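Supplementary notes for students who missed Thursday's class. We covered one full example, reproduced here. Read the sequence, then the structure, then the short commentary at the end.
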Amino acid sequence: MITLYGLGPSFGLPEASPYVTKTEVQLKLLGLPYRKELGRPEQSPKGQLPFIDDDGARIADSHFIREHLEKKHSKDLDAGLDARQRAEAWAVERMLENHFAAASGCTRWLIPENFEKGPAHFVDGAPEELRPRLREELLGRVRESFRIAGMARHSDEEIVALGARSLAALSVLLGDKPHLFGDRPAGVDATAFALLAGILTPFFDSPLRRRAEGFANLVAYTARMMRAFYPEHPWGPERPQGPEHPRGTPR
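Structure (token representation):
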């Protein structure tokens, strides 16, 4: 049995981490039985979530988890995609994970109100007298990681503009299709859904979330994916498409 380690439901989402969500959706797409448990980064071979335990083999990082599962079970999440589509899927995944995820992450961590109601509670298991220092240290580490990656070197307005540009590109690529490459979800749909749900959750307010809400096809896509993969999880209604918010056009 495969065990997937994650953070668990939080922030109005079935799973707090978009990367754990990505792996969980890919497990469902592969049709592989699994169980899910709460995990801590220090338990992971790479010091990060998600990681899986597959009959004693511990594999970390969502990309390498996918590679391991596809190889072991002779399955292909991109079956049906031609060589060009596979290349496009990889490019979209890198845009989302290496660029948009940082812009989205800044809205959770670097907007004080969002940090206080969200990630600050990651240390709630510690003794109460230690929590203020632990929260400060946690925020400092994450802020520095965003700075090293380059995103936190920009102004708030520039971060929103960069994130919105990735959303606009994804909206154009999706168009009117049910999924990014047609009727069936491919591996990259798990990534897109996870990161879109992370920015669209009403738990966190931010200018980037409001920009995301202006892309009617991305809002509808996220709702479809949520119904398909987490039918038990309550999610807001799809935003109706009207002339004031044409499909794919940000407000």
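Commentary. The chain has nine helices and four strands. Residues 68 and 175 are 31 Å apart (CA to CA). If anything here is unclear, bring it to office hours.
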